[in-house]
Design a protein that fits this description.
mainly alpha, two-stranded antiparallel sheet, disordered C terminus, about 350 residues, disordered N terminus, 16 helices
């Protein structure tokens, strides 16, 4: 009997070795699917991503990967095509730093769009940023204009496609280059490796030279430029939220708390208000201001419990400012230290999971 089996659907012959190889690949797919299903099934409902957030993260990831691909578009490899499926299969989505940035940006956008509009009690009063456009201090006026410009340019393909933050953009460039190398298959050699590495280095240098400043970076520059006195910060925070300028709110909060923008965003996006209330108390926000900020966030996000917020606001007055500052102190530690601790926690979690099987 022949080792060749006719594949009648395609009018060709499937060899015995091919059949065995495909059967082994099918078994691996089944096992991978079962492992993924088990992982998904084990996620507590409270931690599960809603469909809107998941879709937003997928769309944003596609933008970031496409931006990296465009940065390497002058370097064509044989058989090159879309690399995202290959990156997914290689485990790109298991990168916690990337996931944290994606979910933070998507949820920030969601919260910013959902903020209610509150007209000023004084109809003649212009918005917070516009008041600084013609400021007599050139650095402040320039920072205000840059912030307005960054908001207008967001997502506009004619003014520069949205790409990942610089450190993640560099990482994605290396991933995309590696994917292009894999796509080259038998055509790949050391010359291709060297050319890809050179292309990535050029792309990183170009990104550093032209940072395509995002709204959050522009907002941080503006917050630093105005350098508001502590007594002015609470009023500015409320006004920024009422103007639906979430990036500005986060920047002002981060600057006052002396923490990074991403850390400030994490505190604000946390639907449990305890840490945010303590942090606002630490920077000198009065009880009424903390309540206003919390209420505005509750209006924008129905998953936040107003009753829990009210309890926290009532209790925070009894907390010493030094104790409240302790909430922020951990966020000021070196990012490399945080990254190392996160890696150790992931390792411990993985070990616990393996021991439980």
């Amino acid at each position: 009997m022949s080792d060749d089996i006719a594949d009648t659907r395609h009018g060709s012959f499937l060899g015995a070795e091919d059949l065995l190889g495909r059967a082994a690949a099918a078994e691996r797919r089944v096992r991978a699917a079962t492992a993924a299903a088990a992982q998904d099934f084990s996620v507590p409902e409270a931690f599960r991503l809603d469909e809107a957030t998941r879709s937003g993260m997928t769309a944003l990831l596609e933008e970031w990967v496409e931006a990296a691909e465009r940065a390497l578009s002058d370097f064509a490899t044989p058989g090159a095509g879309e690399v995202l499926p290959l990156l997914r299969a290689a485990g790109l989505l298991n990168d916690w730093t990337l996931t944290d940035a994606l979910i933070g940006q998507v949820r920030q956008d969601q919260l910013g769009k959902a903020l209610p509009h509150h007209a000023s009690a004084d109809p003649a009063r212009v918005s917070l940023i516009n008041r600084f456009i013609d400021h007599p201090v050139p650095a402040i006026a320039e920072a205000a204009r840059d912030l307005l410009l960054a908001g207008h340019h967001k997502g506009n393909p004619e003014t520069g496609q949205q790409r990942a933050p610089l450190h993640l953009h560099a990482k994605l460039l290396w991933w995309v280059a590696s994917a292009k190398r894999e796509q080259a298959g038998a055509e790949a050699d050391i010359a291709l490796d060297e050319a890809l590495c050179a292309a990535v280095r050029r792309a990183i240098a170009a990104a550093e030279a032209f940072p395509n400043e995002a709204a959050d970076a522009a907002a941080m520059r503006f917050a630093a430029a105005i350098g508001s006195a502590p007594r002015e910060v609470p009023e500015l925070l409320v006004e920024a939220l009422r103007d639906r300028r979430l990036a500005l709110f986060l920047a002002l909060f981060a600057h006052a708390a002396q923490i990074g923008y991403a850390d400030a965003r994490a505190l604000v996006l946390d639907r449990h208000p305890q840490r945010l209330v303590l942090a606002l108390h630490a920077i000198g926000a009065p009880r009424d201001t903390i309540a206003q900020i919390g209420f505005l966030l509750c209006e924008a996000d129905p998953n936040r419990a107003i009753a829990v917020l009210a309890d926290c606001v009532d209790a925070v007055g009894a907390v010493d400012h030094a104790q409240a500052w302790a909430v922020l102190a951990a966020l000021r530690l070196d990012p490399a230290y945080h990254a190392a601790r996160a890696a150790l926690r992931r390792s411990a979690m993985a070990g616990w999971g393996e021991g439980g099987r």
